[in-house]
């Protein structure tokens, strides 16, 4: 378990104890420089070619010109031969754009594993739901909203709204959903303090788990499924241990490396579908015991192991 970071005091934007209004949100946005390229690191690999069994398509565009920013085409990959008699698998990455292996792991899975699963399942992959967040290495979108709390009707976050519309149009029935995430040290050093400042609250840091873990859905726990994924990931990276209270990020550990959230009421991407099997990965890229390659591999192994589990159930 890593040591908690002390919260910055005060956060550079806003007045402590007072929720942000439009001027504070604008001040926050002005502090967010571009740090990498969505075009070069996400779009270019996709446009260079996906497996022949896959179809690359645009499911919309994020337009942030009203904020002095640009527009972002949103891309997805689906099975070219979609069959109603096969189970359907949804993979989502980059809901939080700063969580690098969620995006790069999804792209790597498309390149290396997509073709191997053709004819076994229908596949829909949204590899980078929050491209501005990817470019600025940010948890929020430019409106200072967390897209992973906005998967709900009439969502104010275009990232979530367009992803929901894409899934509804292309995969109305989903049997398995794997949502790819990371937990990072910046959750304590930047993003937690920013959220507290935005909402007029006091930030309370929490221990960051050192290692991989999963977040199951409280109404759909499927403990054997979650346990099988943890077993598979142990082969490529270490699994997070609980803190002194038996928790990971403040939630009780249900089995080694697994906690639960009630995803739909929280507006989480993992609550997007009615899939029987649903899990959210949490990779720890800041660990001295893990490399970027291992983080990407952990994401890939989870997706493939989840599909193997689904198929073993005779879905």
UniProtKB/TrEMBL annotation:
Cofactor: Zn(2+)
Gene3D superfamilies noted in UniProt: Zn peptidases
Coiled-coil residues: none
Domain Succinylglutamate desuccinylase/Aspartoacylase catalytic: 86-186
Source organism superkingdom: Bacteria
Keyword field contains Metal-binding: yes
Matching Pfam families: AstE_AspA_cat
Keywords in alphabetical order: Hydrolase, Metal-binding, Zinc
Protein name: M14 family metallocarboxypeptidase
């Amino acid at each position: 378990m890593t040591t908690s970071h002390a919260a910055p005091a005060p956060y550079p934007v806003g007045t402590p104890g007072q929720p942000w209004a439009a001027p504070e949100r604008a001040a926050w946005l002005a502090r967010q420089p571009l740090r990498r390229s969505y075009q070069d690191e996400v779009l270019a690999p996709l446009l260079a070619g996906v497996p022949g069994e896959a179809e690359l398509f645009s499911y919309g565009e994020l337009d942030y010109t009203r904020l002095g920013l640009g527009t972002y085409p949103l891309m997805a990959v689906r099975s070219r031969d979609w069959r109603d008699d096969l189970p359907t698998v949804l993979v989502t990455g980059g809901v939080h754009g700063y969580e690098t292996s969620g995006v790069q792991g999804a792209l790597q899975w498309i390149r290396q594993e997509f073709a191997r699963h053709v004819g076994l399942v229908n596949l829909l992959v949204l590899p980078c739901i929050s491209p501005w967040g990817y470019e600025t290495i940010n948890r929020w979108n430019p409106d200072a909203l967390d897209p992973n709390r906005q998967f709900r009707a009439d969502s104010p976050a275009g990232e979530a709204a367009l992803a929901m519309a894409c899934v509804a149009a292309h995969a109305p029935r989903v049997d398995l959903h794997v949502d790819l995430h990371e937990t990072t040290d910046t959750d304590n050093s930047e993003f937690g303090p920013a959220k507290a400042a935005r909402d007029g609250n006091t930030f309370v840091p929490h221990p960051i788990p050192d290692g991989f873990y999963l977040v199951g859905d409280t109404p759909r726990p499927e403990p054997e499924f979650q346990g099988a994924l943890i077993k598979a990931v142990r082969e490529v990276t270490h699994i997070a241990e609980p803190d002194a209270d038996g928790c990971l990020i403040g939630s009780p550990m249900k089995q080694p490396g697994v906690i639960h959230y009630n995803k739909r009421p929280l507006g989480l991407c993992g609550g997007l579908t009615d899939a029987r099997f649903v899990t959210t990965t949490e990779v720890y890229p800041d660990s001295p015991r893990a490399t970027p390659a291992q983080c990407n591999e952990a994401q890939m192994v989870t997706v493939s192991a989840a599909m193997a589990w689904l198929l073993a159930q005779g879905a």
